[in-house]
Amino acid sequence: MKNHNYQVGGSLPPDTLCYVRRKADQDLYQALVAGEFCYVLTSRQMGKSSLRVQTTHRLQAIGIHCGIVDLTEIGTQDLTADQWYASVIRCLVSSFNLQVNLRAWWRSRSYLSPVKRLSDFIEEVLLAFVEGNLVIFIDEIDSILGLSFPIEDFFALIRACYNKRTENQAYQRLSFVLLGVASPSDLIVDKQRTPFNIGRGIELCGFTLEEAKPLALGFNGRVSNPKALLREILAFTGGQPLLTQKLCQLILEDIEHCTRLLSEEGTSDPPTGNSEQKFTTTVSKTVSKNFCGKRCTVNPTSIDYLVGRRIIDNWEVQDEPEHLRTIRDRILSNEQRAGRLLGLYQQILQLGAVAADDSWEQMELLLSGLVVKSEGKVRVRNHIYAAVFNCDWVSKQLSNLRPYGTSLRAWFNGDCQDESRLLRGQALLDALAWADSRSLSDQDYQFLSASQALDKRDTQRAEAARTKAVAIQLTKEQEISRLQKLLLATVSTGFLVSASLGLIAFLEYEKAVINEINAIAKSSEAFYASNHKLDALIYAIKAWNKLQHVAGAKAHTQSQVEKMLWRIIYEIKEYNRFSGHRAAVYDLVFSPDGEMIASASGDKTVKLWQRDGTLVKTLEGHLEQVKGVAFSPDGKMIASASADNTVKLWTIEGILLNTFTNNSAGFEAVAFSPDGNLIASASEDNTVKLWTIEGKLHKLLTGHSAGVEEIAFSPDGEMIASASEDNTVKLWTIEGRLLRTFTGHGSGVEGVAFSPNGEMIASASEDNTVKLWTIEGSLLKTLTGHRDEVYGVAFSPDGERIASASEDNTIKLWTKDGRLLTILEGHRDEVEGVAFSPDGEIIASASEDSTIKLWKQNSTLYTTLTGHCHGVRAVAFSPDGQTIASGSSDKTVKLWQPDGTLKLTRDNHSAIVTGVAFSPDGDIIASASSDKKVKLWDKDGILLDTLNNHSGGVEGVAFSPDGKIFASASEDKTIKLWQRDGTLLSTLKGHTNEVEGVAFSPNGKIIASASEDETIKLWKIDSTCTQEAKSSKNSNLLPECWSDSLYTLTGHEDEVKTVAISPDGKRIASGSEDKTVKVWQGDSQDWYLTKPKLLHTLTGHSDRITGVTFSPDSTMIASASADKTVKLWDHNGSLLTTLTGHQDEVEGIAFSQDGEILASASADSNVILWHVEQVLDLDEVLTYSCDWIQDYLSTNAELEKRDRTLCDRIKELKRE
Questions:
Q1: CA distance linking residue 317 with residue 313, whole number of Å
Q2: 864-872+951-1037+1045-1180 homologous superfamily
Q3: What CATH architecture does domain 23-201 belong to?
Q4: pLDDT per residue over 790-807, tens digit each?
Q5: For residue range 247-260, what is the model confidence (pLDDT) as tens digits?
């Protein structure tokens, strides 16, 4: 076999075996053949020069002349403009083999500018002497952007060559290609000149699996599954060319090393020498065995080990050829920008991704190669970069910089006018943390203050822009609606005036109504896109109502409205909104019985609301903003804290009982003790005060060095926690003795709460985080994800969830272990406070947008099972439907009740759990795992057996209908058949790649298997074989019974990931990486005689199919996809509905035995149980929608009167 070496770094020659042809190759080639000007501008070591070499070779093969100007050959140091332009012409002369006396030609035009001489050379020499089409490649253009003379003239000349095409036909033969690390805006930065706005940008992306297939050739004959290995390599590198080539080469070297060791193992004597040499040899053999195995089988664990050992560990030393250091140097090279780039990158690391906005910071990060833009988001390019340039590395680099030294100097040098020098985001937070506890100059404080003000204005501008966009859209739609109504009136009048025009009038009327429906539907879509889903639902129902009055509405319009309704109702969380305050709402609280809500506002009032949103009472009396509010434990009194230096005590009827006065500063928060005998107040004078109900000051708690923002009593009433702007939380006894101080926040602490059992404290801070602490002061967890200051935090009544409210306009819900559950979006301004209802069913939020929003997590359309720490890969129902089993990437199997209650967790697997299945009698659960094992459990979770016979990860498991045998599908390309007691019956071989799924026919005589070899195989099972095997316990018995497959079904264009056989035995469904589901027709009784035929191909998913199953009555097919959706199809292949509730890839699906529930397992760590009848019935969805918004329609003060009857029509239809 010919040696296959990978090339790490440098330009690849045209005939190399390891060149990967990408989409950019074809795009650039076709564009140049068509005579276009092009540019390939991207980060270093993405293969630009190799692309140039390959493209040049292809163009020359069809007669196009190519010239290359590599600007690094010319240099940049101590060059005059004359020297530089002359050098460019010299490169052209050489590239195109021109016979010209360059020195004489150049001197004869000394009276001209250098750029004019180059222009004349192109027209008078190059185009005159070279016939046919020409392409000039200008490589490494970023190397000249800092030259001492105006290099913009050069790029302006290229643009001029493009513009001359219209007046000089010769220029139509000339094309340019610019390559380098820059953006088009970098080429001509002078605002007085026309920007570089010509040419076609060629996007040079990382390798995809399909494109990178040539790289797998180097592993042929060396590993069992080169394609699978390549997939794992790309999972680490993200397709980055140099890293991919490097990792391929490292693996190849280790495989060859391993092969030598294995060949020597049986013949060589044990190593001799010192102990270190013996140890090294032993470890090397162990690693090689683990990496290669007996047949050099590579797995993700071994690759992970290799990446850590050869690339990540001590990376600055191992980085040859230089790559990671190049990225590092680009980010840190410019001291003026490094802090901001690091701050943005830190945010990307913490959030996983940020919205792409084409800011210079993002552009610079993109050009560094560290991040990549996809689907409107900017994220870290690959796992290796994330591991090398991790949060610790970023923190270290930030600490090496004075957070704002260079920016401060530049800002003052620009007379404090250049806002681009000010800090934003994480860079600002880091600077504030550094400045804390230091005595700074006036300039420092001026700079930090301006930075904070700018950062806040940016946030407000962004929200204002989004709000304005929605408002403009709505205004347009309202104007259309107004004109249409005018048209309706005119048409109606015309109808009365002239009966002869009746038909025309009717058609115009119908057209106007349809236009109005389309306008309303677009408004719904606009609200949905901006995360205002309650408004989106209102408009969707409006559109549906109007559709009922138009017989001629197009099916497309009807379908769009119905799809929007379904999509909104699956995702909506907001169900009511209280409007009535005239300023920001700072705090809110539920009454102990959950029937009332009190809110505190900047409009100087406290408002009391019924739970449905009815305004009960407005409490007036404060002279300044009301910042805090609390109910007494018996629900009969309300306390309010105000910036007017008072706390007021009111009856529930609104009668003022008492006023507590603080002479030194305003109050920020107030709380009742659990027994109702004391009131605690937090003040801007750095103190906490304890008062009796009668208004007597009971205790004064001092110790904070800045204003106290929030207070909370422990559930037993024995302790008080206070949160302060001094960055700390303090814990006090009820007698006022300081127990301990919690430090760790990098900025002021705005909120604090005790868990219901009193064992945990949560704190919310201006440093964008929530921290969870033990009562003893140990930090348990830091919750990161908010993009701005966190103002409020609350525990659910059961203590299992935490809600946080932030200046980023969102509420986030977390588990008590710190896992993010969901994000509640919809407020138009920062969220100041959050509270759970006493029953835990409702979350209320208070906002600067003057509203209170109520949110519900639970739905009657579906139930969400939360508890896994990582993605859920598989799900199955017990035969009686009373237990759901789920298998997860967190290596656990969990059993649940249908109401979402977790019954038990088992963590015996050592890798991802990929499959779960119940035996037909429900007594046994089988779980499959990437750890190569199948485990058998009883229904109480007791481990019965572990089966170790597979040599690769196990991808799926299924029981026969009689429960006597079960099958397992594996990455080792086999299916194994087992007896119920774990005895291996036989191994089915025939697939040429990993087997991903397996299913039994309802009569138990056929097994279907799905494989990455792009096929489905059908295998015959002889019942006499299983019976004899059962009695003999001989795993090699009668291999002829199962050695050959009946049929192989082909047709998928990529790996087949899943397979199912319908309960009536007449159809097979398969799902593939090709994004389709295929349905095959056949009868399991006749499959021995007739090969199933393709019946339908179901298209509609936008990503690979991960799961497929039939309903118990065989009338429906459900498909799960990496596009985050589940689709339901009827038996004819028509799409019934799309379920959109998951936030990540859907990995598995299963119907309950009665067909009433469909379970979907997702990489978002959740399982959703969908109520099938309801999600398929539009009437049910409409009824559900109206039930959802009924309180809002009844009570919201800003709703138009006519909209309060929005659901009347739907209720009438329901009664009919």
A1: 9
A2: YVTN repeat-like/Quinoprotein amine dehydrogenase (2.130.10.10)
A3: 3-Layer(aba) Sandwich (3.40)
A4: 999 999 999 999 999 999
A5: 998 888 888 777 77
